[in-house]
Amino acid sequence: MDSSGSGIVILADVIGSRRRPGTAATWLRRLARELDALYGPQRLARFAFTQGDELQGLLRIGADPMAAILHGTLDDARLPMRWIVVAGPVEAGEGPATERSGPAYFQAREQIEVAGKARDGLVMRSGSPGPDALLGDVAPVLGTLLAELSPRQRTIARLAMVDGLRQADVADRLGVSRATVSVTWRRARVRSLGRLTDAVRSIFAAGVREAAAGTLPGEDPGTHRR
Q1: Residues of the chain with confidence (pLDDT) below 50
Q2: How many CA atoms lie within 13 A of 222 on its CB side?
Q3: Domain spanning 6-149+188-216: which CATH class is it, in words?
Q4: Could you tell me the residue ranges of all domains in the chain?
Q5: What CA–CA distance (Å, rounded) separates 128 from 212?
Q6: Residues 6+ apart with CB under 8 A from 163
Q7: DSSP classification of residue 79
Q8: Are 31 and 75 in contact (CB under 8 A)?
């Protein structure tokens, strides 16, 4: 565990999993394995899922939770999921994320209930009031836009936003014309999605840093030192 005793909790609940229990379990098993490989030493605990078809992860402070969200949301075989990300205190322990606990877990559990009632697909809390107010407005919008992509748009968005390919490279990868990719790229608003994703990522990271320093925006960190 980080010396601060803090981490980034990720909860991702499969929406409507009771209608496809076998499919959900297979999907979550693969997603957990892929996210373990993606984060490696940036994990505080390995990803795992519950019998209620909820993925759980625990990352080190400073890791990028957006990588998990994009990886899961833009996968060709993805199931609709509600994502909750909370940075904060976690208890020391061993074992997978499903066996861990702490205040950040409790807050994430509260947020997943709130998000379910509001039908928000993405909720993020950094632990700093100013950034969290912004995240409360923009993170759900990003979640909705990602969830509304068609299968073809998801594929192209993944190649652009996750793999970092340009339109010409995407066309080569898919074996289609540049014009075909350009049309889907535009309809999916890939450039705008990328900018919004970067904004959410930056706001969350700034909030985590402020919370760790014990400062509010515009405040001198030295005022908290003794």
Answers
A1: 1-3, 215-226
A2: 0
A3: alpha beta
A4: 6-149+188-216
A5: 9
A6: none
A7: P
A8: yes
